[in-house]
Amino acid sequence: MDQNALIEKLKEVIKPYLEDETLLEKVDGDTHLIDDLHINSANLVDIILDAEDAFDIEIDDESAERMITVKEALAVISEKIEA
Amino acid sequence: METSQKANLLQRLVDLLPYRRPFLFVDRLLEIDEESIQGEYTFRADEDFYRGHFPENPVTPGVILIECMAQIGLVAFGIFLSGVYRSGFLDAFAFTSTNVDFLKMVRPGERVTVSAEKVYWRFGKLKVRCTMTNQQGETVCKGNMSGMVIKSQA
Predict the structure, then answer these.
(1) Which of A3-17, B11-25, B88-102, B118-132 comes out lowest in average pLDDT?
(2) What are the domain boundaries of chain B?
(3) What is the ipTM of this complex?
(4) When you count CB atoms within 10 A of the terminal residue's CB, does the N or C end of chain A come out lower?
(5) Topology of the domain comprising A3-82
(6) Non-local CB neighbours of B150 within 8 Å, separated by 6+ positions
């Protein structure tokens, strides 16, 4: 899957957790999942669990802690897809 | 687990709860394993909130029923699942969301039993399906609730 397809798929995973879906339009690699998307860390856990299902991967605790920005989240997802 | 070992564990979990009267809504824990927990509490006739909720017609507030479910189903269960009960060192545990339906009223002096089943425990977040029943075995309230371990800064 190329980077664009990955980010689009990740946006679909994130969408249900956003109060304001227009925030998705501004999402890029530097988007901070908690600060920029106005979600809390509990919702971030649900996003990570949904990403596991959407991408058919398993994310360990250490990798989850790295998923702070969109760029880092995509890096973890790519690693797990290739693993 | 041996019976006495289990009794010690259940008592230790109650002792580790950060709440105290008048905001401790757990008398004892009845059962625990990796999948579920059960505990009970008797609402004292002299709980302070009955004076205002409502004068002449004391009813346990729904938010207090939720608090009782959260103290057993999220906090006590979270202390167990996270393993912190072994070290006795407790990080903060934050209530993050809930969706509860209420079916019956709870009057002063009633004993309630709370049962929680783990939906998942991952990345420090605990989500449970929780049910409160009264002494007649009727469901008082039920729903999902979640909480999260907030790690203290080292």
Answers:
(1) B88-102
(2) 3-150
(3) 0.88
(4) C
(5) 1.10.1200
(6) B91, B92, B93, B94
pTM: predicted TM-score of the whole model, two decimal places: 0.92
Q: Which residues from A are below 8 Å from B70, CB to CB?
A: none
Instruction: Single out the residue of A59, A29, A57 nearest to residue A44, CA to CA.
Output: A59
Q: Which residues of A touch B120 (CB under 8 A)?
A: 49
- A4: nearest Cα among A78, A83, A56: A78
Each domain of chain A, given as residue ranges in start order, spans: 3-82
Residue of A nearest to B95 (CA): A42
| Contact with chain B for residue A40, Cβ under 8 A | yes
Top-level CATH class of B3-150? alpha beta
pLDDT higher at A69 or B154: A69
Asked if residue B117 lies in contact with residue B36, where contact means CB atoms within 8 angstroms, the answer is: yes
Distance CA B126, CA A82 (A): 29
B123/A61 CB distance under 8 A: yes
Active site residues of B: 53
